[in-house]
Amino acid sequence: MLIQSRVLILLLLSLLVVSAVSHDKKKKFKGVTYDGRSLIINGRRELIFSGSVHYPRLPPEMWPQILNISKHGGLNAIDTYVFWNVHEPEQGQYSFEGKYDLVKFIKLIKENHMYAILRIGPFIQAEWNFGGFPYWLKEVNNITFRTVNPPFKHHMKKFTEMIVKKMKHAKLFASQGGPIILSQIENEYNTIQPAFKESGTQYIHWAAKMAVNLKTGVPWMMCKQMDAPDPVINSCNGRNCGDTFPGPNKHYKPFLWTENWTAQYRVFGDPPSQRSAEDLAYSVARFFSKNGSLVNYYMYYGGTNYGRTAAAFVTTRYYDEAPLDEYGLQKDPKWSHLRDLHTALKMCKKPLFGGVPSVQNLGLGLEARVYENPGTNDCAAFLSNSDFRVPAIAKFRDRDYYLPAHSISILPDCKTLVYNTQTIVAQHNERGFRVSEVANTNLHWQMSQEKVPTISDASVRSTTPLELMNQTKDTSDYLWYTTSIELRNLDLPRRIDIVPVIQIANLGHAMHAFVNDEYIGSGHGSHIEKSFTFRKPVKLKPGVNQISLLGMTVGFPDSGVYLEHRLAGVLNVFIQGLNLGTIDLTHNGWGHKVGVEGEKLHLYTQGGSHRVQWTEAKGSGTALTWYKTYFDAPEGDEPVALNLTSMSKGMAWVNGKSLGRYWVSYLSPIGKPSQSEYHIPRAFLKPTDNLLVLFEEIGGNPEEVTILTVNRDTVCSYITEHHPPQVKSWLGQDSEIQSGLDIIKPQASLKCPNHKVIVEVEFASFGDPFGACGDFTIGTCTTVDTKEIVEEYCLGKTVCTIPVDWKKLTTKNEEPCPGIVKTLAVQVQCEHKKKH
Q: Residues 307, 312, 316, 318: is their CA dihedral positive or negative?
């Protein structure tokens, strides 16, 4: 094997397919090369199970926790983008501290004995403000993003070189003994390349050459880039790359999956997003059965878009349906089912890399993909049923295997079924929120009203309304547009049934309108259609009438061609229904003012909050109101959240740290907010006197705001008699098993989080129960004493197992529900053991 590996490495070097790292025969090879089968890391082939975790989307205090639980989920690599706009917010001024300490994050990955995948971009999209580009880049003379434009190439190259140099200085590339095994340049460029025609092709060749010339000692890749130039590897993004991706563009490049979307990010106005654990597992097993060697879950932990970092209309919570939810808690069964999949695939590693692949048709929609080494006993098989509705019995090597619909069974020795993608052995859980007794005691809310400016308060003047983003320069969401109109008595309608209407065409994203200091309404676009037209009746008076419009962005756009030319803000303004007819105010002369006063005064900080007068807040308030209160840190150590369903739209801060934008008044098609709870990291809190500040744009009732603790203490199991046998090593181990599989019969396994114990069995039924964790219901058939038996197995324990055997689930001497495949459904509640 060693001789074969050296020959392979030398061959790859001669083809210029590998990174430029010399191979010293006297020393162990250090670095990363590749061939058509896989990456070769420090001379060894590896199956890579990676998860995306973005360092700016969680406080540094949470980094160790998230990396540790990711590793226990069977991951051996962490993938992250590099966020240009946080590292160089002003041209030439760099920031790599706190949650932007990229070097520290990569070093922590290494401390966890995991690999790192560094996606430099520097365009990243990522549902991140401006796709990761800093605003100042937009104002560079004659710039066009992401094409053979000299100013853009200069700045892109300068930033990329700076990041690579920083990584090299810290010795973080695998060629230096570090964890980084793969880097990415550009990002999904195929989606805009046709717009630039030949210039697009030239650009992608320039970008590849520029990156390779940095000589990192590890390969470069381009995702969704079928014409990625050698030696850059093209990789797949999507939900089902095992079936939708044509494959590498050269036979000597490996099959890599850069983004397996674990759900879908959400925008304000979206209904809940789901992707089942079963479908996700099927896609991964399919990919590895077809010569895949690296999968990255996007996202494995999504985290939070703190501050103003989210892209246009993207919610503050990011990829909450990932294996780890926004609070860093295991979302089961997704986390556990994937953990078991990783274990099953690791059992297949030897035949996957050393065996000869073959495909055998087992019937309509059924096939076996086999990797076998004829000279050894190494053999692994993947038995698949592609039918989405109908299960099947497949005969493979003189044995019958039950294959549920749309499933793949893994046989690491070509005989023993240890995992099926559709059959979940792992436990389930349900997220719960509890109102904190400590934090909500004696909340005293105060308020301060934001002043609505007139044209005399606005220093930037123009005949017409100016474009919003060019004025705010991404320093604030808000831009005031102000003008005035003088009317006579005879200009106003005399009939009481005729009321003037103001009509405002807006390029997006949202706007609040005030006439004579009175709030008259709000309008907004959507993630799909940013622009909108606002129409509302207005009360006008004889004399001078002040019109003040608070235009805003809800994050900058993050994708598409000509990103630097996007527009937002007020376009034109008309007053209809006057005796004069329709009046066009578009050229009436406008004043502009960036931001709101509370932002400039830093009212959300302890020092800034003393710069205005506060009065007691009672009940529902009006538009543009600042609210503040103090609270003590919630009891325990569980994650903390803020429930804002009583508010409308605005921003929230705790101790001066932004929790991001909230917009609970923008309802989804099912009549609920896209996000109601907002994460407060424990790292943001002090034991007492935590300052909570809300800037409410439309109106809401702060007295109904509650501070919550978050848990996943409702734990469930749902196991049928058709479940395959389980591999005992799954129960707490994560090793590469090649032989001697220790098989046990199906059993329900329940484990409380954080050393809690089972205090109640809330549901237990053996028969035909239905529903899901948190909402089980007894079916038409069930045993009568299963709940009491389960209580004997589980109460007072942190971990319990229950055999799926009717003789042990009932005291009766006859089998319940004969003639049907029976299911055991159990739901328990966990709590910390009470101290006496």
A: negative
What is the C-alpha separation between 523 and 546, in angstroms, rounded? 19
Burial 791-825 (b: 16+ CB within 10 A, else e): bebbeeebebbbbbebeebbeeeeebbeeeebbbb
CA nearest neighbour of 328 among 95, 57, 28: 57
Among 39, 31, 40, 70, which Cα is nearest to 53's? 70
For residue 700, the enclosing domain spans 433-449+599-710
DSSP, collapsed to helix, strand or coil, labels residue 582 as: strand
27: CATH: 3.20.20.80
Q: Is the dihedral of CA 17, 19, 21, 27 positive or negative?
A: negative
Same domain? For 75 and 29 the reply is yes
Average pLDDT, whole number, for the chain? Answer: 93
183 and 301, same structural domain?
Answer: yes
Q: Does 438 reside within a domain? A: yes
**CATH number of the domain encompassing residue 497:** 2.60.120.260
Same domain, 417 and 562: no
What's the token pair of residue 493?
Answer: 């309608």
Query: Contact 472/729 with Cβ under 8 angstroms?
Result: no
Q: Is the residue at 740 inside a domain?
A: no
Q: Does residue 723 lie in a domain region?
A: no
Residues in the chain: 836
Q: Which of 186, 188, 450, 696 is catalytic?
A: 188
Which among 579, 595, 611 is the end of a domain?
595
Instruction: Determine how β-strand 292-301 pairs with β-strand 255-261.
Output: parallel
Annotated active-site residue 188? The verdict is yes
What are the φ and ψ backbone dihedral angles of 117, each rounded to 5 degrees? -120, 120
pLDDT band at 374 (very low <50, low <70, confident <90, very high): confident
Structural domain count of the chain = 5
The pLDDT, as a whole number, for residue 9 is 33
Rounded to whole angstroms, what are the CA distances from 577 to 482, 484, 500, 535, 588? 21, 17, 4, 12, 18
Contacts of 476 (CB under 8 A, 6+ apart): 594, 595, 596, 599
Name every residue whose Cβ is closer than 8 Å to that of residue 561 and which is 6 or more positions away in sequence. 146, 192, 195, 196
Clarify whether residues 362 and 328 are in a common domain: no
**806 and 671 fall within a common domain:** no
Question: Between vectors from CA 706 to CA 704 and to CA 707, what angle results, nearest 5°?
Answer: 165
Distance CA 574, CA 206 (A): 49
Q: How many CB atoms lie within 10 A of CB 361?
A: 9
440, 466: one domain: no
pLDDT higher than 60, residue 19: no
Calculate ∠ Cα 738-734-795, nearest 5°: 125
Contact between 251 and 237 under an 8 Å Cβ cutoff? The reply is no
Which are the contacts of 759, defined by CB distance < 8 A and separation ≥ 6? 795, 796, 829, 830, 831
Specify whether the CB–CB gap between 287 and 236 falls below 8 A: no
Do 580 and 612 share a domain, yes or no?
no
- Single out the residue of 390, 417, 430, 418 nearest to residue 406, CA to CA: 390
Of 577, 595, 613, the last residue of a domain is 595
Numbers of helices and strands, H then E, in the chain: 16, 46
Nearby residues of 28 by Cβ (< 8 Å), 6 or more positions away: 42, 43
How sure is the predictor about 621, in pLDDT bands with cuts at 50, 70 and 90? very high
Indicate yes or no: pTM above 0.90. Answer: yes
pLDDT of residue 10: 31
d(CA 247, CA 254): 9
Catalytic residue among 46, 88, 186, 259: 259
> Does residue 618 belong to any structural domain of this protein?
yes
Identify which of 301, 288, 283 has the alpha carbon closest to the alpha carbon of residue 239: 283
| pLDDT, tens only, 323-347 | 999 999 999 999 999 999 999 999 9
Determine the longest span between alpha carbons in the chain, in angstroms: 101
Query: Residues 709-722: pLDDT tens digits?
Result: 999 999 999 998 86
